[in-house]
Amino acid sequence: MHKSDSEGIALREGIFQYARTRLEYEPAPLDSPQSFEYLAEHAGPTITEAGIGGEEALRVFEHVLAPATISTDHPGYLSFIPCAPTAASKLFDLVVSASAIYGGSWMEGAGAVYAENEVLAWLAREANLPASAGGVFVQGGTLGNLSALVAARHTAKAKRVANGLSMPAQWKAICSAEAHSSLKAAAAVMDIELIKVDVDARGKLTGAAVEAALKHSSDDVFAIVATAGTTNFGIVDELESIGAVANERGIWFHVDGAYGLAGMLADATRPLFAGVERADSFIVDPHKWLFAPFDACALIYRNPELGRAAHTQHGEYLETLTESGDFNPSDYAYNLTRRPRGLPLWFSLATHGISAYREAVESNIKLAAKIADEIRRRPDLLLVREPELSVVVFEKAGWVLADYDAWSARLLAEGTAFVVPSSHKGRPNARFAIVNPETSYELLLEILESMTN
Ligand SMILES: *Cc1c(COP(=O)(O)O)cnc(C)c1O
To answer: Which atom from ligand 1 is nearest to the alpha carbon of 231?
Structure first.
């Protein structure tokens, strides 16, 4: 299997050629999913005793599997949260793959860990956290939120033990009714109660609402979670007032900024994030709005020691790492073996500089505002909410879900755009999530026009 003969060289060149072609597309075809039956017929069984050979496997991938896989970096991909990695970050992802780096410990991955930590330190600086803040890149926001909440509860438990207090019958965490589904998932894993507090008319969770909720649940609450950019609308909760309540009561304050916290890089939207500096932990996903490839979530603790105390795994074969006193990224989240998934972002940031990132985020926000203006001007379209960041949600007068579905399917079949219907309060709508600097005003206009045909 480890051949460097001509066959191996041919395979390597074939792969490089494929990757080169993929990277040179502007843009890559959008593509679309196929049925299982179609794929079974055209790709066939590929896992055999003898192997089908690299050349054939690559052919199947290039001609059958890849075209059945949507390009999330296509400028017309506007559903969910797209992924728009810079060329530099994609290229460096190849280097990471070629390098077999273990990113879990300083002993094995010092150079890589140093570089990842530079990026985490920068994010902590942007959020005005102290220089001692730090953490780890995990797979995604779901794991980041879980890891932060586990650290929060561990800290609350330790406090109770230190003060000679008993444990509550049920640990509780507070978040908004608009918070991401991953918090509910984390609550289920942790067997805690999640108290969902209503948002105000602007869609925001406020300190006053949290304060009111605390009156009912008293001191069983170990964490308060604010969302810095809801996934549906891009709305930022009132971090300042929520953080003040949490800080005053000594309750862990976590900011879920998986999608939206990148908005703190733009001058125009920075004020929305006032109060993030009160956080005990926060997350932001580079694969969402920091122009990095899947999959990466930056998880940062104000006091990393609290993360380490909660997450360090102990085992005979690991003690040499644990006892070294080194900074081992594995100790700061629910993970052990890890790819140094922060490196593609590190390379791209080092290449382009922070200013380029500020400008890219700002350009997405401006485009969202511009297309919102256009939607407001059109009598047949209704803006569901004013965009705060780069998500634009609107309805088409008279349309029911079937109309949105048919329109969405047509756009995908044409290879123009991927805009799946969303909904709010039971009403279907269309939603643009704009995080790709290649997404143009002209393309968005074309998509709006396609609703009238
Ligand atoms: C996307 C998202 C998550 C989950 O992140 P994954 O990387 O998909 O696991 C959590 N919170 C918010 C606000 C999100 O937008």
So the answer is: 15
Ligand 1 centre and the CA of 74: distance in Å?
20
Residue 284 counted as domain residue: yes
DSSP 217-267: HGGGEEEEEEEBS-TTT-PBP-HHHHHHHHHHHT-EEEEE-TTGGGGGGST
Do residues 368 and 278 both lie within one domain? no
pLDDT digits (tens, 9 = 90+) for 158-177: 999 999 999 999 999 999 99
Q: Please check whether residues 225 and 291 belong to one and the same domain.
A: yes
- Tens-digit pLDDT profile for residues 203-225: 999 999 999 999 987 789 999 99
Tokens 């780096």 label which residue? 101
Mutate to test the pocket of ligand 1, among 79, 235, 288 (most ligand atoms within 8 A of CB): 288
**Cα 6 to middle of ligand 1, angstroms:** 45
> Can you tell me which atom of ligand 1 is nearest the CA of 139?
7
pLDDT at position 117: 98
Ligand 1 centroid to residue 259 C-alpha, Å: 7
Kindly report whether the global pTM for this prediction surpasses the value 0.90: yes
CA distances from 324 to 236, 316, 439 (A): 41, 14, 48
Same domain for 433 and 377: yes
Ligand 1 atom nearest to CA at 297: 7
CA distance 123 to 298: 8
The CA distance from 125 to 123, in Å, is 5
Nearest CA to ligand 1 atom 7: 140
Pairing of strands 172-176, 193-197: parallel
**Local mean pLDDT, 10-residue blocks, the chain (453 residues):** 78 96 95 97 96 96 97 98 98 98 98 98 98 98 98 98 96 98 98 98 97 88 98 97 98 98 98 98 98 98 98 90 91 98 98 98 98 98 97 98 98 97 96 98 98 83
Residue 153 within any structural domain of the chain = yes
User: Who lines ligand 1 at CB under 6 A?
Assistant: 81, 140-142, 145, 180, 182, 227, 231, 256, 258-259, 285, 297
- Biggest distance spanned by C-alpha atoms of the chain: 72
What's the CA-to-centroid distance between 256 and ligand 1, angstroms? 8
